[in-house]
From TrEMBL:
MF (Gene Ontology): mRNA 3'-UTR binding
Signal peptide range in chain numbering: 1-19
Keyword Signal set for record: yes
A GO cellular component annotation in the UniProt record: SMN complex
Keywords: Signal
Ranges for region Disordered: 275-317, 354-402
Gene Ontology annotations of biological process type: spliceosomal snRNP assembly
Bias (Polar residues) ranges: 358-370, 381-390
Protein name (Swiss-Prot/TrEMBL): Gem nuclear organelle associated protein 5
Alphabetical list of PANTHER family matching this protein: GEM-ASSOCIATED PROTEIN 5 (PTHR46362)
Domain Gem-associated protein 5 TPR: 13-68
Length: 477
C-alpha cells in the first residue's frame, strides 16, 4: 500500500495522467535512480516491455560508474533480460581481467559482484562456471534459449569515436554469443561471433581491446577452432581464416614493438593513416598520439631508428614470422586496393562539389555569374589523390569523366569478388607487408628473402593509392 501510494504521489507530482505517463516522464531524467524507479513503476502497471527497456537503460547507466552489483540488480527484475545479464556478467569478468593487469595506482574503484573474485583458470571456463552457479545456466536447452534471446539484438558497426563503455558492451554481446554457441556445439556461429568482436575493436582503432579479446578467448591461437570446424570446405572457413589473420596480425605488431628500444607508443600503428568506405576497414589511430586521421603518416613508422644488428628473435617470434604468410592474401590485397580507389575517387568528387558550391556562392555575392567563364567548375583541373605519386603528378588535371571511369572500374572489380571474401573483414594486407619489412630491417636475416620479396611485390602491385605510395617508395625503390 505504501509503495502504491508513493507512486500515486509521483504521478501527481509529475503532473502525469497515468502511471505509464509518469514512468516516461521520470525516464527523461536519464540518471540511474530515475530509470530504476520508472522501470518499477512501469512494471506495477503491467507495462512489462517498457519496464524491461528502462531497466536495461538503468543498467547501462550504472556501467559508467562501474557499479556491477546494482546493474545486475536492475536486470534481474525481468526474465526477458536474462540474456543481458549474461552479457553484463562477461563484461564484468573481462573488465576485472583488464584491471588486474593495470598498475595498482591506475585501478578505478568498482563495485564488483562476488563471482568476479576468482581469477584462476581459462577465461571461457570461468565465464561458463559463473553462468552455471549464478544464473542456473547449465543445459543445452538453456544455452539455446539465451542464444535466441540475444541473437535478435543488432548493434551498429563500431567507429573510432565510439565511447569506450559502449564499445566494450557491444563487444561483450558478440563474445557472449560466441560462448553460448560453443556450449551448443555451434562452432561455425562461435567463430563468426568471435570474429565480430575482434572486428569491433579493430574498427574502433583500439588495439589493446583487440589483444585482450585474443588473450582471453584465443590464448593458444586458433588451431582448436580449426579442429572443431573439421571440414576445410565448411561455410565458416572464410570467417575462420579472417579470425586467424587478425590473431596473427596482433602478434605481428607485438613482435615489432618488442624489437624497438624503447618500445614505441601503441598509437604507432601503420593502419592509423587512412579512411575507408567500409566500416570494417576504417583505419584510425589508437589514442591521440598517432598521425592525424584522413591522411598518410608523414613518413613510415620508426623512420629515425637505425636497425640493431644484435637484436635476436625468440623461438616464439620465429613462429609468428612464419605464420605471417597467412596475411599475404593477394585476393584480399586486390579487394582492399579497389575499395581504396573507390574511397579516393569519392573524396575527389566531394572536393569538386565543394569547390563548385564555393564558386557559385562567390559569384552570386558578386552580382551574378561570370559570363566569360563557361567551363563547368566540376570539369576544372583538380589533383586526384590517386595521381599524387610525384611532384609532377600532383598538378595533373583530372576530369569528371575520368573519375567516373575509375569509379566504375573499381566497382566492377569489387563486384567480381566472391561474397565470402567481401563479407568477412581481413587485416590490411599492405600494412602487414610494411610491418614485416620493418622487422626485416631491424633483424637482418630473420625474415626470409622469399617473404620480403612477396611483401614488396604486393606493395608494388597494389600500393598505387595515395595512402601507400610514400611507403612503397621507401621499400620498393
Amino acid at each position: 500500500m505504501t509503495l502504491c501510494l508513493s507512486f500515486l504521489l509521483y504521478c501527481s507530482y509529475l503532473g502525469a495522467a497515468s502511471a505509464y505517463d509518469a514512468a516516461k516522464v521520470l525516464a527523461k531524467k536519464g540518471d540511474a535512480a530515475s530509470l530504476r524507479t520508472a522501470a518499477e513503476l512501469a512494471s506495477i502497471v503491467g507495462e512489462d516491455e517498457l519496464s524491461a527497456s528502462l531497466a536495461l537503460r538503468c543498467a547501462q547507466e550504472l556501467l559508467l560508474t562501474r557499479n556491477w552489483v546494482r546493474a545486475q540488480e536492475a536486470l534481474q527484475l525481468h526474465e526477458s533480460l536474462k540474456g543481458q545479464r549474461l552479457v553484463f556478467c562477461l563484461l564484468e569478468l573481462l573488465s576485472k581481467l583488464q584491471e588486474e593487469r593495470q598498475p595498482s595506482e591506475s585501478k578505478s574503484s568498482s563495485s564488483y559482484n562476488a563471482w568476479s573474485t576468482d581469477t584462476e583458470g581459462p577465461f571461457t571456463e570461468r565465464v561458463t562456471a559463473v553462468w552455471r552457479s549464478a544464473f542456473g545456466l547449465d543445459t543445452p536447452e538453456q544455452h539455446q534459449a539465451a542464444l535466441q534471446q540475444l541473437q535478435s539484438i543488432q548493434y551498429p558497426s563500431a567507429t573510432n569515436n565510439a565511447p569506450s563503455k559502449q564499445l566494450l558492451l557491444h563487444i561483450c554481446h558478440d563474445l557472449t554469443l560466441a560462448v553460448l554457441s560453443q556450449q551448443t556445439a555451434s562452432w561455425d556461429k562461435a567463430v563468426e561471433a568471435l570474429l565480430r568482436a575482434v572486428v569491433r575493436s579493430y574498427d574502433s582503432g583500439n588495439f589493446t581491446v583487440m589483444q585482450d579479446v585474443h588473450s582471453a578467448f584465443l590464448p593458444e591461437g586458433c588451431d582448436h577452432l580449426r579442429d572443431k570446424l573439421g571440414d576445410r570446405q565448411s561455410p565458416a572457413m572464410p570467417a575462420f581464416k579472417s579470425l586467424e589473420a587478425f590473431f596473427i596480425y596482433g602478434r605481428l605488431y607485438e613482435l615489432w614493438w618488442s624489437l624497438s628500444r624503447p618500445r614505441p607508443e601503441s598509437s604507432v600503428w601503420v593502419r592509423a593513416a587512412h579512411r575507408r568506405t567500409s566500416s570494417t576497414e576504417r583505419h584510425q589511430p589508437l589514442g591521440d598520439a598517432g598521425p592525424e586521421a584522413g591522411g598518410p603518416p608523414a613518413s613510415p613508422p620508426e623512420p629515425s631508428r637505425p636497425p640493431e644488428p644484435d637484436v635476436g628473435l625468440t623461438e616464439e617470434s620465429e613462429r609468428v614470422l612464419g605464420a605471417c604468410k597467412e596475411l599475404f592474401s593477394e585476393t584480399h590485397a586486390s579487394l582492399q586496393n579497389s575499395r581504396r580507389t573507390v574511397a579516393e575517387v569519392q573524396e575527389t568528387l566531394a572536393e569538386m562539389i565543394r569547390q563548385h558550391q564555393k564558386s557559385q556562392l562567390c559569384k552570386s555575392t558578386a552580382n551574378g555569374p561570370d559570363t566569360n567563364d563557361p567551363e563547368p567548375e566540376a570539369e576544372r583541373s583538380l589533383s586526384s589523390p590517386q595521381s599524387q605519386g610525384s611532384k609532377e603528378a600532383k598538378n595533373e588535371p583530372v576530369s569528371l569523366p575520368e573519375l567516373t571511369r575509375r569509379l566504375t572500374e573499381a566497382n566492377e572489380k569489387i563486384a567480381k569478388f566472391p561474397e565470402s571474401v567481401k563479407t568477412w573483414p581481413f587485416p590490411d594486407v599492405l600494412e602487414c607487408c610494411l610491418v614485416l619489412l620493418h622487422i626485416g630491417s631491424q633483424c637482418p636475416g630473420r625474415v626470409t628473402q622469399e617473404m620480403q620479396q612477396q611483401a614488396r611485390e604486393l606493395l608494388q602491385k597494389y600500393g598505387n593509392t595515395q595512402v601507400y605510395q610514400r611507403h612503397c617508395q621507401t621499400f620498393c625503390t
